[in-house]
Every structure is written in structure tokens, then in C-alpha cells.
Amino acid sequence: MRIGLPKALLYYYYFPLWKTFFEALGCEVVVSNETTKQTLDNGTKFMAPELCVPMKICSGHVAELLEEKVDYIFLPRMVSIHKQETFCPKFLGLPDMMRYTIPGLEEKMLAPQIHSHTERVSHPKDYLILREPLEVSLQDIKKALKQAEKVWCDFRAYSKRGYDIKNATDLALGQVTEMELAEKNKNPFDISIGVIGYVYNIYDKFVSMDLLNHLENLNVNVFTFEMLDEMEMEMELNDMKKAMFWTFSNKLLGTGRRFYHDTHIDGIIHVTAFGCGPDSFVGKLMELESNECHKPFMTVRVDEHSGQNHLQTRIEAFVDMIKKKKNALKTQKQRRA
Questions:
Q1: What are 189-247's pLDDT values in tens digits?
Q2: Across the chain, where does the E strand assignment appear?
Q3: In this predicted structure, what is the pLDDT of residue 186?
Q4: Quick check: do 2-157 and 188-336 share a fold?
Q5: In sequence order, what are the residues at sequence separation of 6 or more whose Cβ sits closer than 8 angstroms to the Cβ of residue 13?
Q6: CA quadruple 233, 235, 236, 237: dihedral positive or negative?
Q7: Which CATH class is domain 2-157?
Q8: Highest mean pLDDT: which of 77-91, 96-110, 144-158, 222-236?
Q9: Edge-to-edge strand order for the sheet containing 28-31?
Q10: Does the pLDDT value for residue 292 go beyond 90?
């Protein structure tokens, strides 16, 4: 049986878990291709104009998988992974939006409701509806989820040790060794920048316009939210009278505040998609915090019409400014000494 996974949204965070889970059940996992302009154009045909770019891109990936003749497409309804917090309404309604707008999807959609108190999303109760379409037993699901949870925990452990999502995924799935990665990344870089943004905005090269590679080519160490421990993020929010409703938005805000107080981080870039409601809160709070902490902060807002050359110019100017500031401070210290 062939199960399609759209390479969009939380694919970038939960791929090691879902891939391992379905393969442990004896299924073949089919992942859609990298996002292109055609992917976005296809998705725009089906989704409402008011929706954000990531949702339109997800729709394009789903349409692509339908052409791949998969048996089912996995589109979970992500409700919660933290007590008293939830996902944005677009995630809550994602299966319904897709079901009623993309022809031929309804009978092929697997849409379990994920309602968890932890990030692991591996409780069998959330996957019971998969028994009949996949022709598996509860015991099969429990066994597969146990394997999947172990791989995902390995993935998170690698992330917290500073590996980006791609490398952490490859390590957790046994597709590369730490020795091989160490050989590739042995040269230290000049400055460090914290990039905050949802995983599907940062790690989708089309959405971010390959931001991470641009920064690497400019000799920049990049740090992202998934490299922090959950407790570190939550501690940064303790002084807030009220946290936001959305789990990943709180992660970004906690990470941003952590970066502001981390002397090893020289600047912060916030990557956001036009039309994202939760990000409008995160971005404004980060902007206010920047003024208080006197650390460079820049927002990169993407939509269907964003241009890569424009982004590259802004990134280069931002990095040059940070390097000049850092060199000036270094010169001042040397003179005082």
C-alpha cells in the first residue's frame, strides 16, 4: 500500500516519525517533490485567496500526490501538542479545506485527529481510525508507533545538539553519520544569526528562497528554534502575563527572546508568510524586544510574488551590518586593552 506524505507544513518536523510509522506497518511512503512555483500555482487553484502561502503550497503537494496514484494521502488534523494550547485555525480545518476543494481526495485521505499533551504525537488513540483503511490491528499500530517514537526522539536529540532539521532527519533515519557531517562542517563561521520561523517557512527552500544556504555562503552560523530544548523556550515566557494560544508561535517567541539574551547570537531574522495571523503577534513582540535588547532584527515576509534577488540583497546588507558592528566592538576592546 502506498501512502503519500505532502512535503509541506509539519512534514519538516514529523517526517521521521510518520515515515517510520507507515513503513513499520508495511506501507510504502511516497513523498511529494520539492516545492516549485508550479506547486504553488497548482495549490492556488484550489485554496481561497485569503489563505497563507504554506497552506496553498500544501494543497499543491496534495494535488501532485494524487497524480502519483498513491492509495492514501496522510493529512492529520493537528489540534494540540501542549496543554491549554492549540494550532492555528487553518491547521484545525486543513482536512476539511482539502476534502471539499481538491477533486478525488476525499476517498483517499487519512485524517486522524492528533490531540496530544506532548510533542511526540504517538499515542495509539489518535491513530485508531487507520485500522480499517490500512487493514491493520491495534497491536500493529502500537508496535509501529513505538518504533516511530524512538526514531523521532533520536531526531529531536540531534536537533538539540545543533543539527538543522535536514541533518537531524538524516541522522535519525541512519542515512548519514555524525562523522560525515563533521567533516563537511568543520570550519567555524564569523557570526551567528538566530533564524526564527515555522519549520515549513524556513526549511522549504522555495518559501524561504533558500535563506539558510544564503547565510551559510556568507559564513554565518544559523540557529533555529528546534535546536533549543522545550524547557528553555518555556522559561523565556514565564514573565508574560498570558502566553499566546498557539504552540509553535510560543516556541518562536520563546526562542526569539532566548536569542536576544544569548551573547553568542549576533542578530535575528524572522521569516514569516504574508497573511499569517499568529505571526503578526510574534513579529510585533520580537520587534519591540529588539529595541530593548539593542540587537539587530529583521523580518523577511514572503508571499506568492516574493523575489529571490530582493531577499539576497537584504540578507547581504544585514550580515554586512552585523560584521561591521562586531569588528568595531572588537577594535574598541583592543584599544582599551
A1: 789 999 999 999 999 999 888 899 999 999 999 999 999 998 888 888 888 877 778 88
A2: 2-5, 28-31, 72-74, 77-80, 109-110, 113-115, 191-196, 220-223, 267-273, 297-302
A3: 57
A4: yes
A5: 165, 199, 226
A6: positive
A7: alpha beta
A8: 144-158
A9: 28-31, 2-5, 72-74, 109-110
A10: no
> What residues contact 336, with CB distance under 8 A and at least 6 apart?
none
333, three cell numbers = 576592546
What CATH number labels 188-336?
A: 3.40.50.11900
Distance from C-alpha of 190 to C-alpha of 218, rounded to nearest angstrom:
9
User: 17 vs 65, 116, 243, CA distance in Å?
Assistant: 20, 15, 28
Q: Sketch the domain layout of the chain as residue ranges.
A: 2-157, 188-336
Distance between CA atoms of 44 and 37, rounded to whole angstroms? 11
Please tell me whether residue 74 adopts helix, strand or coil conformation: strand
> CA of 118: how far to CAs of 5, 86, 122, 127, in Å?
22, 12, 9, 15
Grid cell locating 248: 509553535
Question: Tens digit of pLDDT for each residue in 141-174?
Answer: 999 999 999 999 999 999 999 999 999 999 999 9
Say what the alpha-carbon torsion angle 272, 80, 32, 202 is, to the nearest 10 degrees.
Answer: 20
Cβ–Cβ under 8 Å, residues 17 and 149: yes
- Grid coordinates standing for 161? 545538539
Longest dimension (CA), the chain: 73
C-alpha 66/C-alpha 12 separation (Å) is: 20
